[in-house]
Amino acid sequence: MATPTADLTSMALPVLARRYDCDLTEAESMLHEWSENTCIQVEDVAAWVLWEAPTLETTRAPELVSH
Fold first, then answer.
1. What does the alpha-carbon distance between residue 47 and residue 35 come to, in Å, rounded to a whole number?
2. What DSSP element (H or E) covers 43?
């Protein structure tokens, strides 16, 4: 059975992949990179992506994207 944290992360990956036009592996790397760069737990970054992050149309947050 998946944990709620794993569920949040797995739900955030396709959102990131679509938003940043990348595959799920790149999205996972992006999620972990953001977590490390901000000192915020991965599950909290995933929650932000799902519920609070702006859409691609409003901003790409280029300072957080390494590629």
1. 12
2. helix 42-51
Q: Which two tokens stand for residue 13?
A: 């990956």
Calculate the CA 62 to chain-centre distance. 13
- Say how many residues make up the chain: 67
Angle, nearest 10°, between helix axes 42-51 and 24-38?
110
Q: Record the tokens describing residue 61, joined without a space.
A: 């947050």
pTM value is: 0.68
- Give the torsion sign (CA, 22, 31, 51, 61): negative
What is the DSSP track for 26-40?
HHHHHHHHHHHHHT-
Long-range contacts at 52-58 (CB < 8 A, ≥ 24 apart): 53/19, 55/19, 56/19, 56/20
- Whole-number pLDDT of residue 51: 85
